[in-house]
UniProtKB/TrEMBL annotation, chain A:
Keywords: ATP-binding, Cell membrane, Ion transport, Membrane, Nucleotide-binding, Translocase, Transmembrane, Transmembrane helix, Transport
PROSITE patterns named in the record: ABC_TRANSPORTER_1, ABC_TRANSPORTER_2
SMART domains documented for this protein: AAA
Organism in which the protein naturally occurs: Marine Group III euryarchaeote CG-Epi1
Record protein name field: Nickel import system ATP-binding protein NikD
GO terms of biological process kind: peptide transport
From TrEMBL, chain B:
Keyword vocabulary terms for this entry: ATP-binding, Nucleotide-binding, Transport
Molecular function terms from GO: ATP binding; ATP hydrolysis activity
The protein's name in its UniProt record: ABC transporter domain-containing protein
Domain ABC transporter intervals: 5-261
SMART domains found in the cross-reference section: AAA
Source organism: Marine Group III euryarchaeote CG-Epi1
Pfam families according to UniProt: ABC_tran (PF00005), oligo_HPY (PF08352)
Gene3D superfamilies, per database record: P-loop containing nucleotide triphosphate hydrolases
Alphabetical list of CDD domains matching this protein: ABC_NikE_OppD_transporters
Gene Ontology process terms (BP): peptide transport; transmembrane transport
InterPro entries per the UniProt record, alphabetical: AAA+_ATPase, ABC_transp_ATP-bind, ABC_transporter-like_ATP-bd, ABC_transporter-like_CS, Oligopep_ABC_C, P-loop_NTPase
PANTHER family, sorted: TRANSPORT ATP-BINDING PROTEIN
Amino acid sequence: MLEIENLKTNFNTYDGVVKALDGVNLKIEDGEIFGLVGETGSGKSVTCYSALKLLPKAGEVVDGSIKLNGEDITNASDERLREIRGGEIGIIFQDPLSALNPVMTVNEQIGEILVLHQNAELQKLALEKEIPTFKSEKWKASPGVEFTIMAFCISFISLFVMLGQWRFSLPFLFVIMLMFLRDYLQRDNPASALDLMVIDALSRVKLPNPEQIANSYPHELSGGMQQRVMIAMALAGKAKMLIADEPTTALDVTIQAQILQLIKDIQKEENMSVLLITHDLGVVAETCEKVAVMYKGKIVEQATVEEIFSNPKNDYTKGLLEAIPKGGKERLKVPNLEETSVL
Amino acid sequence: MKEILKLKNLKKHFPVKNSWGTDVALVKALDGVDLKIESGKTFGIVGESGCGKTTLMRTLLRLVEPTSGSVILSEEITGNNFSSKNLEELTSEELRNFRKQIGVVFQDPMGALNPRMLIKDIVSEPLVIHGKTDNVRSRVIELLENVGLGEEHLYRYPHEFSGGQRQRIVIARALALDPKILVLDEPTSALDVSVQAQILNLLNDLQKKYDLTYIFISHDLSVIEYMCDRLAVMYLGRVVEEADTDELFSNPQHPYTKALLSATPSFDKNKDKIMILGDVPSPINYLDESKAKLATEITEQEKLEISAIEGKGIDYIVRSSLNEVIPLVQISDGHYARVRQQ
């Protein structure tokens, strides 16, 4: 599915060049959950941003190749990359509240992805059901606009009443009446194809009342719901691969278990590949099939999950596993990073 | 077994006001917490976000006033040889004395350190405030050496240190006045596992050296199991289970404790899984009778999740079933839980 060969990424800073990635080799097969573990600054996230060309200005990929389904995307055009991001590869970030746009409803945010990546599907659905494609016929403005209209109408009414010309206030009264009756008047108007697909995307991630959630803003949802919306967004473009960058770090353990279960279920249903980036070895043990351990911009060990936890080969991996408290009160072993073989 | 602190039916309710300024609801952040904290031991508090862990810590420090109930200090803290005292009744002079006895370490060390102050000023600030101005420099160096730093770090700023070193500085500052109690609010959740191991070892060493009492708040059960002697599990402002750590981990009674223990990711793939379904409930209690009680019926979200995991052999607990208030009963010696008696 995704093949990364000898990837080297540098960051140019005032203090010199930081070699964030120093020859990373990764191969993610179709339909597997692949874990990428490492500590802060080891280059986990940079690996995924380099693969998608999402690096900040200071970062540049200096060497290596990235292949997606056999196609070399190392030097792909911006247009092709836009197709890939959100289309073939969906991404979930750590903190859902900062990844979601606070001034757009869930409906608008997922709709954006559907319009960009699923336009053909949308047109087909609209033709089949004979409903409008994008905009529902229902008239509804944002709360701010509605408030402004209402305020204008009321001020004009009071102005004309004060002037003794109450007849002129009648049209404004009519507008206010229409606003109150709006929902009743347009009760039979059909939802658009876009609305239907958004609701479909939301119900795939097991969200209750998808119609209601589609019309709410991110801050109105709980942390677990926000992360579910993020997953729905990542999957909306019919992604074949999901990159999850610390998807559960901001969540409580019980909610974390729910989200991991959801990711596992969806992966199985749609036979996707998942690249799970995390610093929590327990999460990896529970979800992944294969795992790679990163340290200082290199992959120091790569194996199946059973192997890495029962028989770690690399000194750094061993140290990392020993540093986790596992019952018992003996003194924790602190990995002596300066003496490990990777340096 | 000597108590150093005792919480008696502690309640803290925050009012929720509507736009007219009248109270419409109460957030019961703490709703009748009874705890006894033993001297020289580590007492752990676990629970999810919004369950009242932090409010408990703040009431302990008297940063917020409790709605009702009391914190009773033993003579060890009050310094009086004969009497224990209620935290609320302390005069301002006594409160200053009390604050000397209790140190705090917060979750995010960068947020707890003033970025424009030198390390020597940060660590010596409590000494200066409490008037212990002789030999400040040697005392600061001693404190830094206690936590594995040294004299060469005196004239540096917080940003020049790594996350683990910053947490060490915060610990050094908390120890500056020789406190009896150290409140640790998620001290390692911002750190990597290898650094976490260093900090936990350091905390254990310091406890032995100075005979400190720790109140350890965390959501990481492996850390809690390693550090704590006794443990209280909180849910929606109440303690739902309290026991010695070994007993609680081997014989959990409350359904939430069971789910929490099994939700923690572990290396053991064959472990029995109990999923907890549904979303974290809102702790708001409406004063209006019709909305007053937290819903105990199965919600839409839970129905969906049940249908999703059906037939996969996963045990589950529905979160709305936990909203009911059940009195605390004794399971065995020193083990209490809010479960129905058979």
